[in-house]
Amino acid sequence: MARIPMIAGNWKMNTTVDEAVRLVKTMLPELDKVKGVDKVVCPPFVSLKAVGDVIKGSSVKLGAQNVFYKEKGAFTGEISPGMLAGLCEYVIIGHSERRQYFGDSEEIIDLKIKAAIESMLKPIFCVGESLEENEAGRTEEVLTRQIMASCEKLYFFGGIVIAYEPVWAIGTGKSATSEQANKTIGFIRALVRHRHGKEIADSVRILYGGSVTAANIAELMKMPEIDGALVGGASLKTDEFVSIARQASEVRGVS
Ligand code: PGA
Question: Are 50 and 20 within 8 A, CB to CB?
Fold first, then answer.
């Protein structure tokens, strides 16, 4: 069965509630028309409810950008999987900015993925090597460690999506080439196959992320291993994000 491509917008720490509502209202009419691709927007926590209300009944889905792994208690400032469960379908976990600035270790990410799945949230699990690791030829070693730390168990049954985001390509305007991304995503899929068998490896969606724009999405989507994109900067621009989703649908949309 063909994997349905996904285009997910990670709005990061941008937009007030009013701005988020305005942004999604501008995108929605065009985005809703794009067929054969899962379209997801991930606004900040405080805007999830308001954005969710706008997209209700449309084909656009909602994701959060992070989650804590405890269900409740004295964890000031954190948001639990149960709190998100009624609000959104997806949650980004292990983004490199979380790993880099907020101490999200492989162990913590593993706990978050498990907790999210137990609350019926679908993780968009981010992995990727740094520039130094890339230049030292350690990409495969790093990815093996990151994937194995969190996907050892049965998590793939929870509808997990993986996003390969080389850290050197995030927000830099320096995207990986489509061939590079295809090869590395193929490597990740082979890891999944080795661990969980062919059926799961063939069905898990693996996205590329890092300086994806309307100018490079078509090339990326032509690659057989790449099942879509996690888009940062370009997801805040209506025309750009709609064009990315539309092109993904033209190249690889599943009817
Ligand atoms: P970018 O970010 O598209 O701005 O490079 C991607 C991401 O961090 O998910």
Answer: yes
Nearest CA to ligand 1 atom 6: 232
Output the pTM of the full model: 0.96
Residue 10 Cβ < 6 Å to ligand 1:
yes
Q: Whose CA is nearest to atom 1 of ligand 1?
A: 232
Task: Report how far ligand 1's centroid is from the alpha carbon of 10 (Å).
Answer: 7
* pLDDT tens across the length of the chain (255 residues): 789 999 999 999 999 999 999 999 999 999 999 999 999 999 999 999 999 999 999 999 999 999 999 999 999 999 999 999 999 999 999 999 999 999 999 999 999 999 999 999 999 999 999 999 999 999 999 999 999 888 766 566 667 999 999 999 988 888 889 999 999 999 999 999 988 889 989 999 999 999 999 999 999 999 999 999 999 999 999 999 999 999 999 999 998
Question: What is the b/e burial string over 162-200, where b = at least 16 CB atoms within 10 angstroms of the residue's CB?
Answer: bbbbbbbbbeeeebbebebbbebbebbbebbeeebeeeb
Q: Is 225 known to be catalytic?
A: no
Choice from 10, 130, 244 to test ligand 1 binding pocket (greatest atom count within 8 A of CB) = 10
